[in-house]
Design a protein that fits this description.
- This protein has one domain.
- The protein contains 2 helices and no strands.
- The longest helix has 24 residues.
- The N and C termini lie far apart (79 Å).
Length: 75
Amino acid sequence: MGSGGDFLSGREGFLIVAEIVNLRMARKAKLRADRARQADANRAKFSRTKGEKAAQDSEAERSARQLDGARLERN
């Protein structure tokens, strides 16, 4: 390692310095990012046109009817 027994020295003798992080600010930044990600998901889920909603509802209803029609009944 480095000379003089400095355990923080790298191979070339450069001092390795860690970045100081304010934990409160990091926690708040993570919370903001999580909320933004959730907002994007909500926009994709709920901001549909009336036609898109009707098409998706009719497709779900058709799928449910098809599934119920293929169901085997037990005696």
